[in-house]
Amino acid sequence: MKNDAAPVRLFLVDDHPLVRDGLRARLGAMPGLEIVGEAGSAAEALALIETLQPDLLLMDVGMKDMNGIDLAALVLQRHQPAPHVVMLSMYDNPEYVQKALQVGARGYVLKDAPAAEIVAAIEAVSAGGTFLSPAVSKKLFRNQAPRPLLTPRESEILSALGRGESSKQIARDLGLSVRTVEAHRQSIKRRLGIEGQAELIKYAVEHAWEFGQG
């Protein structure tokens, strides 16, 4: 938390007014924190964040007009310097948590967590760290299978395959020869223990988000 500096400027995003009311009640008197605005939809959030330029977003995952994780990705792509993002969710699904962290969120807190946990998340993320609800962290690491080690270039290519791109398209986008892309595809298959092209594409579609922004 900023102590002797300006307060952390917090923006709330949740499509349930009662949740936002509860968050304001919990966090409004928190030292070093100023709630500068709130939104009940992705469209409203995008407009107000542009105007208010908050330091930190506390954002719901399960909104009606846009998934909160997709909204976080959009905000983080559009703004520089980008605000820190803490996701607030009813869901402890490890896949949601991994995706939120991948797009750039710095925290993930469950909605039924004690108020102290939300405060701890805000403090940790505001100080440049990360925070996961203990229940989320325990489930995430209990269920996480070892991830195959791919090079950054192989990760890019796998992500592109997951988006349905051909070797020719990938070569053009990455400035490589088609032959080089094909060599990377063979290397990816060896690392993943995959034999056929169809199996590689299936894996890419199901898992590419783990390796890239696709």
Annotate the secondary structure layout.
Blueprint: E1 8-13, H1 17-27, E2 33-39, H2 42-52, E3 56-60, H3 68-78, E4 84-89, H4 94-103, E5 107-110, H5 115-126, E6 131-132, H6 134-143, H7 152-162, H8 167-174, H9 178-192, H10 197-207
Parallel strand pairs: 1-2, 1-3, 3-4, 4-5, 5-6
Pfam families: GerE, Response_reg
GO biological process, one term: phosphorelay signal transduction system
Keywords: DNA-binding, Phosphoprotein, Transcription, Transcription regulation
Descriptive report:
α7 (152-162) packs across α9 and α8 packs across α9. The model has no long low-confidence stretch (mean pLDDT 86). The chain is built from ten helices and six strands. The chain has a six-stranded parallel sheet, sandwiched between helices. 31% of the residues are buried. α5 (115-126) links the parallel β5 and β6. The chain has helices at residues 17-27, 42-52, 68-78, 94-103, 115-126, 134-143, 152-162, 167-174, 178-192, 197-207, and strands spanning 8-13, 33-39, 56-60, 84-89, 107-110, 131-132. GO terms for molecular function: DNA binding. One of its GO terms (biological process) is regulation of DNA-templated transcription. This is DNA-binding NarL/FixJ family response regulator. Residues 143-208 form the HTH luxR-type domain.
